[in-house]
Write a structure and sequence with these properties.
Blueprint (H helix, E strand, L loop, with lengths): L9 H12 L9 E2 L9 H17 L6 E4 L6 H4 L4 H4 L10 E8 L17 H15 L3 E8 L4 H16 L4
Parallel strand pairs: 1-2, 2-3, 3-4
Length: 171
């Protein structure tokens, strides 16, 4: 579920998060605020995410909370968009958030045509900027979605992407 945290809707967001989070509160459950927020700027998204994080923490949850960036979570553009600066304003009293990105290996990084892999290192290349951001800012990443085609070139790119992700698994 998702509610914009605009004036007049904040109570609905808090109630919605409590309604969803309380029945499943379990230290083995990973909370994900939402997938692919895209209808608002990163600035506005951070206000909504911070309210959801605070509500989750107020019920006593201590496990990681997955926080996506705005603009469909693309790893490809994360470090060059305002996600890079605005998501540093995410406030978690436990400092236990994972920042979600998606990395599709097609031309536009959208997953709309996974049979258009441009190079065998495209996946790994697209994670470089966001990985540098995470290291520089002591943040952890969560690769929430990724895909390639099933042709040999795509599978090679997917394998290189997997190896790169494992090499950077601490971030």
């Amino acid at each position: 579920f998702f509610f914009q945290a605009e004036d007049g809707i904040r109570d609905k967001l808090v109630t919605g998060v409590q309604t969803c989070a309380l029945p499943i509160y379990n230290p083995n459950v990973l909370f994900m605020i939402m997938s692919e927020p895209s209808d608002q700027s990163a600035y506005d998204w951070v206000k909504t995410a911070n309210l959801a994080i605070q509500t989750i923490r107020n019920i006593g949850a201590t496990q990681p909370i997955v926080v996506p960036g705005s603009y469909f979570d693309k790893a490809l553009s994360f470090a060059v968009s305002d996600n890079a600066s605005k998501l540093l304003k995410i406030k978690d009293p436990l400092n236990n958030c994972l920042f979600e990105v998606h990395s599709y290996l097609d031309t536009y990084g959208s997953g709309s045509n996974v049979n258009e892999v441009m190079s065998p290192t495209i996946g790994a290349d697209r994670l470089v900027g966001v990985t540098k951001w995470a290291r520089k800012n002591n943040k952890k990443l969560f690769l929430g979605e990724f895909a390639s085609g099933s042709d040999p070139k795509s599978l090679e790119a997917l394998e290189k992407d997997r190896k790169s992700t494992r090499l950077n698994s601490s971030h």
